From TrEMBL:
It comes from Streptomyces lucensis JCM 4490. Keywords: ATP-binding, Cell membrane, Membrane, Nucleotide-binding, Translocase, Transport. This is Aliphatic sulfonates import ATP-binding protein SsuB 2. Gene3D superfamilies: P-loop containing nucleotide triphosphate hydrolases. Residues 15-229 form the ABC transporter domain.
Length: 243
């Protein structure tokens, strides 16, 4: 019955944070926080410095435990940090296969490296990569295990504006292909608008507000071409071109 397909409810990734509390000493960083993430949803987490964004991501990654409440996450999840955290003594391919098992591990790593545009760099050492390339390896490493949830903690904050825009295109493409839900922390409101299905803003240890974003792609982002022209003009003028 074809209508059964059309009316099938959206599968949930099983990301549910309920009344979560996390304290450090006297300080209550997460104060009865609630958050759910739908299957394949890309949620952007915004909030002032020190409000507890990384703390929440660490709980979802299983790197930390709450003092109260409930955290439900899918079994397969991956985290990408602001710095690439690649092992300097392993080549790119080995950094991606790390933790993978099975005879097809190398092939899977090569496939995902191709997806992030780095097929030619499998044998490179991390120190030979640009910042953008290193973060693409980090994305490849996160995606190679086909996670249901990808947690990204300010993954593009250290990159220049043009590289960051290219990374946005890449995230959009990877999402379509990998069907993972994503929770991405950023301080960059433009980045939030560019990528999000939903933007949640933290305040006082909770999710304060939540905005569904229904903008078409063309209305979301400053273009690469515009940023390149801007960078060239700033260079011509002898001014810094980072922002
Ligand atoms: N392991 C810890 N021990 C003690 N305090 C901690 C620990 N981890 C985090 N905190 C404190 O919890 C608060 C929230 O930190 P967190 O890193 O989650 O904030 P954030 O919103 O990610 O900040 P930023 O945007 O600056 O990265 C801070 O005051 C921090 O000092």
């Amino acid at each position: 019955m074809s209508s059964a397909v059309a009316t099938e409810p959206r599968r949930q990734t099983g990301v549910a944070v309920e009344q979560v509390v996390r304290r450090f000493g006297d300080r209550v960083v997460l104060d009865h926080l609630d958050l759910t993430i739908a299957d394949e949803e890309l949620v952007i987490l915004l909030g002032p410095s020190g409000c507890g964004k990384s703390t929440l991501l660490r709980l979802l990654a299983g790197l930390d435990r709450p003092d109260g409440g409930r955290v439900e996450v899918p079994a397969r999840r991956a985290i990408v940090f602001q710095s690439d955290r690649l092992l300097p003594w392993q080549r790119v391919l080995r950094n991606v296969t790390l933790g993978l098992h099975g005879p097809d591990a190398d092939q899977r790593a090569r496939d995902v490296l191709a997806e992030v545009g780095l097929s030619g760099r499998a044998k490179a050492w991390p120190k030979e990569l640009s910042g953008g390339e290193a973060q693409r390896v980090s994305l490849a490493r996160a995606l190679v295990s086909e996670p249901e949830l990808v947690l990204l903690d300010e993954p593009f904050a250290a990159l220049d504006a043009i590289t960051r825009l290219r990374m946005h295109d890449l995230v959009r493409a990877l999402r379509t292909r990998h069907h993972a839900a994503m929770l991405l922390v950023t301080h960059d409101v433009d980045e939030a608008i560019a990528l999000a299905d939903r933007i949640v803003v933290m305040s006082n240890g909770r999710i304060g507000t939540s905005h569904d974003v229904h903008l078409p792609a063309a209305d979301r982002e400053v273009s690469v071409a515009r940023e390149e022209l801007r960078a060239r003009l700033l260079e011509d003028l002898g001014l810094a071109s980072q922002h």
